[in-house]
Amino acid sequence: MNQILEKSIFEYSRAGRSAHAQQPPGADVASAAQKIPAALRRRTAPMLPEVSELDAVRHFTRLSQLNFSIDTNFYPLGSCTMKYNPKACNQYAMLPEFLARHPLAPDTQGQGFLSCMFELQEMLKEVTGMKAVSLNPMAGAHGEFAGVAMIRAYHRARGDLARNEIIVPEAAHGTNPATATMCGCIVKEIPVDAQGDVDLDALAKAVGPNTAGIMLTNPSTLGVFERKIEQVAKLVHGAGGLLYYDGANLNAILGKVRPGDMGFDVIHMNLHKTFSTPHGGGGPGAGAVGVSARLEPFLPVPIVGREGDHYRWLSEADRPQSIGRLSAFMGNAGVLLRAYIYMRMLGREGMSRVGEYATLNANYVMARLRQAGFDLAYPERRASHEFIVTMKRQAKELNVTAMDIAKRLLDYGFHAPTTYFPLLVPECLLIEPTETESRETLDGFVAAMASIMAEAQADASTLKTAPHTMPVRRLDDVRAAKQLDLTWKPVNSAA
Amino acid sequence: MNQILEKSIFEYSRAGRSAHAQQPPGADVASAAQKIPAALRRRTAPMLPEVSELDAVRHFTRLSQLNFSIDTNFYPLGSCTMKYNPKACNQYAMLPEFLARHPLAPDTQGQGFLSCMFELQEMLKEVTGMKAVSLNPMAGAHGEFAGVAMIRAYHRARGDLARNEIIVPEAAHGTNPATATMCGCIVKEIPVDAQGDVDLDALAKAVGPNTAGIMLTNPSTLGVFERKIEQVAKLVHGAGGLLYYDGANLNAILGKVRPGDMGFDVIHMNLHKTFSTPHGGGGPGAGAVGVSARLEPFLPVPIVGREGDHYRWLSEADRPQSIGRLSAFMGNAGVLLRAYIYMRMLGREGMSRVGEYATLNANYVMARLRQAGFDLAYPERRASHEFIVTMKRQAKELNVTAMDIAKRLLDYGFHAPTTYFPLLVPECLLIEPTETESRETLDGFVAAMASIMAEAQADASTLKTAPHTMPVRRLDDVRAAKQLDLTWKPVNSAA
Amino acid sequence: MPFIPHTEQDVREMLVTIGAPSIDALFDEIPASLRISGLDGIPEGLSEMEIGRLMGERARLDGRPLSFLGAGAYEHHIPSAVWTITTRGEFYSAYTPYQAEASQGTLQLIYEYQTMISSLTGMEVSNASLYDGGSAVAEAALMAVRAHRKSKSLRVLVPQTVNPNYRRVAISTAGNQGLRFETVAYRREDGCIDREALAAYAGEDIAALVIQQPNFFGQLEDVDALTDWAHEQGMLVIAVVNPTSLALLKPPGEWGKTGADICVGEGQPLGVPLSSGGPYFGFMTTRMEYVRSMPGRIVGRTVDLDGKQGYTLTLQAREQHIRRGKATSNICTNQGLLMTAATIYMTLIGPQGLSKVAAASMQRSDELVEALTQVKGVRAAFKGPRFHEAVLLLDRPASAVLRELEAQGILGGLDLSGDYPELGSALLVCATETKTAGDLARYAAALGAAVQKVRAA
Amino acid sequence: MPFIPHTEQDVREMLVTIGAPSIDALFDEIPASLRISGLDGIPEGLSEMEIGRLMGERARLDGRPLSFLGAGAYEHHIPSAVWTITTRGEFYSAYTPYQAEASQGTLQLIYEYQTMISSLTGMEVSNASLYDGGSAVAEAALMAVRAHRKSKSLRVLVPQTVNPNYRRVAISTAGNQGLRFETVAYRREDGCIDREALAAYAGEDIAALVIQQPNFFGQLEDVDALTDWAHEQGMLVIAVVNPTSLALLKPPGEWGKTGADICVGEGQPLGVPLSSGGPYFGFMTTRMEYVRSMPGRIVGRTVDLDGKQGYTLTLQAREQHIRRGKATSNICTNQGLLMTAATIYMTLIGPQGLSKVAAASMQRSDELVEALTQVKGVRAAFKGPRFHEAVLLLDRPASAVLRELEAQGILGGLDLSGDYPELGSALLVCATETKTAGDLARYAAALGAAVQKVRAA
Ligand SMILES: Cc1ncc(COP(=O)(O)O)c(C=O)c1O
Ligand SMILES: Cc1ncc(COP(=O)(O)O)c(C=O)c1O
Fold first, then answer.
1. What is the pTM of this model?
2. Cis omega (within 30 of 0) on the bond before A169?
């Protein structure tokens, strides 16, 4: 990674400079403006940079080098499944014809694209054990929204109007309760037991005639498989609720066990996790949803249907009970193409190996960190594709926190694991190596962790002031939130 | 730039590991081998890395970050014309159809490609003032070879068999004399005068009945325009020799003056310099040659001809006097496409601006460095697109060399200028900013030079041990040449 | 094993370290009854070579018709540098910049994006992207209801001139929290919001008015008057804008006396390929006073331990990973890579360039309307100023005409009969800077032939 | 101004600094008589959008026929990662790594390349690339003459089974230094070097024998016997090899008792697209004893001031920029980026993968010959083992048959009648791992039809 900071693009800007080759020829701005009523016209130019093409290329290339990424660093960020994004997925999703296709082009001008989408739906049904799939949602949380909206629509369609409570275990990802709220539901949190399984008694008390459903990930965000899943399903279904599966952790069980078989009624998949589409520094993702038969009528449109050899969009007219549209067109089509390519390359066996090797890697790192003296949150349990180390003891004894470890890891060339999530494990590091990392990389990570532990014992200040080799040292988040500085202002301007 | 070294790809290698998706399906190695007579079969596998796709991507991505490049740094490498390589040139030269076209595909399956080549020939004729162009040579030196070979063929065709001497000024690039030798000629070096112009008296003495020709660049590698070019031409032509133009410095005069008009009989162009195809860490280039009418019959084949609306390759049959083929097919086609795209984007005005602004930038940096106390090799002269600073005084007074300055510049984020070339100027730095750099970048460079000069005066050791912020410090070249270590060997092997 | 590096020896030794007899044993906590033995329905794996060939064939199936479709997704020139840089591994394969010190590239880029898009829309602050234009409208409605200081109303006015799909998304999304979207009719003569229909809402307790400019028909609304009217009624104003158009059109921050309150839109025109509808990105900007009500990520500039400037995610207390059920939105993964592309696009195109793109698009679409309305039976639906789209009325069914055009390799526009049956046979057409005079002529000729053919049939 | 950043103010102020009245004045040392006023013959500049459209149209003109052409340039699968990484700006836009400390990426990569290609060819050392396969043969011949310790001969034997274009390039290039290339006939039954014709040179003073394996016809030469024979005659042996084939074939370093002396070849099959013939790269490896005679750049590993390992260009005293007229070659700019691609290719494909590519190519070409020789009037020209190419004899003129095939979108191979008229109507065909059973069937069917049509005509 580059250690030299880069100045703002606005500091390169000079009035009158431009990347001239990018400007459309023969445009007559004055006469176009003339056609716009004066009151509707823009008066001052927007503050976009005025730079040469070289300045732009150099600036953004340099910026890119200030990032850690999968392509440059091991990135064991728990819950995020930072695995290798095959370059082929990008290359073939970006074929000129795919890029140029307008979303409203007729089906007849898209049989290639639509056939990929149809087959993707079919494959996702197979790996999840669900009855039907819609590819629309644009991220995991968006899929959650679709899922909870379908649960509500289902109850409503049955006249079961009181069901507006969504149960979530306390370990749940923040998007779960946030989604429930977005869907107008009330969130009920329930505890997990000391082994990381859902507290069945608490669940039994929580369910009732207002229960719309429960949102679970399995394996949970604690990195363990919810062993009582069948009882959970029975309890919730028995109370008239439905089960929502947060597919963020699907990578752990691909080819081993399917949400549909566990009794889930609806699931979202994070294609950007399990199916390796890129994270892009924050997105895009894709949060396809799968449902059991009873929820099928409610799936968000459009969906790809096949009639003989012809593929076509199914819309509101075909699915009158649909919860409707969640995007202006049909979701993150280009991301879906990448997932399709990835799944076809992996194929049947490859798909099952994902779960196997993700689990192998996690259990291996867990075992080695345990040997190196780290405390596990659930030492009795198998790791799923991820597991939790807790620094609670070290926080007390050595005054080093999970955050200190995380920051110091950056100096060793490793991205930090997820910190402080799930919230219920104090000083936690949620570590997910993924199946695409080699044993040597894992060993290197363990060695770094051990070395950091030794540093902590020798002189904790090395950790407390880490990182030391990044372009910046530890940043002042408090100041960032208090003295809001959200846009660049010219030095001379009254900021 | 990344400051952290990367281990060897062979250290990632593990027997049995592979980037599996890259392997062709259904290949039966054993039965294929069976078809090869045992004596012709390979017995031990080659030592290629056995790594995962992620390992490979990560390794080479990290390696890339260990480089300076135009896309990340100002690169004022004199004589090399390190200007911005527009991304469009790469993108459109890499359209799938262009990449897939086989070199032996018939003309009828290549009218798109051939029309670009034909138009490129025409444009190169126009900018150089030559009568005909062949695109075959794959670099500048290759073009030189073609040129000198044509000169020889010309004399030979006239029965003028004694002409085997090539005159080069002492400031010439190393490829000039090397090329003359490769063509079986004898090299005669002549001096330049104190102003950087060719010593006419020496030239007059050098020419004679054995003179095949003279190789010149103009502006010369001293960064000045050869003012006596007309006399030079007269002298050489008068003696029965031909004039060769080394086009490495064409960027300086594009649209201002043409080699053909100066009296040159043959010229190579470095398309990777003047026409901005990328340098690629060493290549590829393209060294198209242009000739006056008398040399046209000797041009290397193939050449693109037009017959009505149809483009076709002209080969030996069409050009019986051709010096023949210099490449198995037709040179660096993909590079030529990039040059074509670049020239079309620049167009008539853009092409003239290249010379203007390259010259403006060079004269500006020269003026500012002079103000900053640097000594110019030719203080009385205009800079062409480049100019020479000499550190002769500082070498004596402060014991800092041009090399020390060069290495220290790296710490400031600037690539070093060309050092120790041309050989006749002691402790020289040949500085070529190119037209694509902004004034702010040039000012930054001047500031760095001034700051380094101050460092030299304060404590020369900072320079002598520079660079300090690169992934490695100054490397031991002597050891590299003495203890040859040219391939990686497994640690256990007897190296 | 594609994308799995393990050798047999690795597996053996790793299992020894773990103390497990087999990989399968690692799944022993899963109830046996639930275990499956394989995924028979998935086809066998393909090598990269095979998938490359397959995708090439599928792409060719889709063809490359000459398209005059717009309606929310626009064909613009995208500089090569945009995606060359955007797909660099360091941007493409990074996660959300939670570890700020190892993510300064992405963070600074977002900060620069926030600056550009805020300035373009004339607003003070921006987030780092939402899913798309449609979901941004939904989020804006939720935000308006949340941010409104004086009203608790869940009612939002969404004129018919707002993209029908945006209205659908808003309803599917925000409807779940009880928001009610009420439509307002448009005037038949100029395709703009019917001020009289709007006046009927005067004095009512309504959270916000949504104004799309240029509107779905491509027509320019009288945004000043609309904004002032809404503000007088105590409504917030949600502007929905095309970012390209803002090079020439008054930015929402300057609408009326005090400007719109929230501005959203589809970011696709800024360097994002059409790509069958996504991934695109929604943008959202607002006034500083509403920043804590905004959904999505926000980057702020701060200093490090040494006082050096750096960038970090900020105001995270609005977000789901901190505030959970009380967050401003459930959004987590956003459309970062598209925002990256847009930032590079805006940098390369610059303020002049964007004006030229907007102007050239206006010119081309004017020329298109001019050329197409020469065809017998074709006329413009609306009077008044437009941006780069227009509604044409045909005297024959649009669907049949479009089919004829398709056979000529032309996508002639969007048939509006589904969403606006009252218009009769109507086509929404668009031309941008990418269209040449030849393209327009080709369409005009083909339309003439198509209409004639349909008439004859 | 495309690719020029200067504002008017910049120009004004810079001229003041320089002390010149105008840019034009900076050219005042050029004799006025020589100055031109413009370049009228160059068309006006195009925007990137326009050139993109133009190039798209030209590319479509070229089409994408199904090709069975080989003859020195081979269609292989290229992993997406190869060019994604190769075109990263840091590789793409860097210069020759003269400043080693700022070029460790390129330098280490070259060192890794040298290791791979040395091992693949079974030789000790490699340079960092030459222009292409043809020029590498020429350079090898020059090097052999230079490096030969015992002979001063300028004669080099180049059998007819060596690619005719390589022979042409060798003559055009090395002929200027007086090298004489003498051809050796091949045997009609197996398309291999005619040992009897060769024996005629026994005892003569000849610098080197060139052996191409697989040879131009795709046939496998008896390299051990040939090498030993040449060495017995005091000739050096120059091996010309296809790098893909070396996964299965004995590497030149192991030919005969002591191995070939110089090994060269076309690097294109290693991840370089066909691209109308270039840019490709020539590779060259040799024994350590000849390293100082080798042309081109070489990278060595060394240590820095702190004893840390690093890489640098070495043995530069062989090169033109140091040795000038006495250099081993005039080569300066080489084909670095292609070597970069090849290094990434070899890494991704690995030793197993390369064996599979070679095996699959052999299989496909065997199947192709099998299928095509079912067609009446078509038969294989030669007996004996082959790699992935074969010569077919037709009973009708190859050129006419090829034209018929072309009309079906098939490039059926290379017509050998120009270079090998003695074969009659002969086609050199090739199939690699990229060809499917369907492709072969399509060719076979089309060939049947084409031959019939020509016969009928
Ligand atoms: C467990 C879990 N659930 C849901 C989500 C939300 O998914 P997305 O970020 O795609 O919206 C995440 C993402 O981090 C997650 O880890
Ligand atoms: C003056 C001059 N002549 C010739 C050459 C040789 O060109 P190439 O490197 O393309 O072979 C160069 C390249 O550096 C040069 O600067």
1. 0.98
2. no
